Amino acid sequence: MITITSVRIVYLRAFGERIVDRFRWSAENGYTATVDNLAVAANLLTYPRPDFALSPDEPLLSSYTAEEIVQAVIDQALSGSAATDSPALEKPRRKHKTIED
Asked: How far is 15 from 76, CA to CA, in rounded Å?
């Protein structure tokens, strides 16, 4: 199993500035950021509209395929072995009590 603590992610649309969580993509950083919150990384890399991808300079690509890395990011984010302070992977909370409560 690949142990991942961060991944380099490129913003493919390369226009303006994009901020997700505490991560920023802009012309200043070549639209590439190191994302160390694997829950955020998993969401970016699996979003239905392909706005983000692993950066070609991601060091893990020298040993693993992009598919293997993305799967490891997803697995670790869902297992809780990653920083999961992102609301994207939290269980939904009920806002109101139901009659069963």
From this structure: 30
pTM over 0.90: no
Q: In tens digits, what is the pLDDT along the chain, a chain of 101 residues?
A: 789 999 999 999 988 999 999 999 999 999 999 999 999 999 999 988 889 999 999 999 999 999 999 999 999 999 875 444 444 444 333 344 445 44
Tell me how crowded residue 24 is: count the other CB atoms within 10 A of its CB: 14
CA dihedral sign of residues 90, 96, 100, 101: positive
Residues 16/51, Cβ–Cβ less than 8 Å: no
How far, in Å, CA of 47 to CA of 62, rounded?
Answer: 24
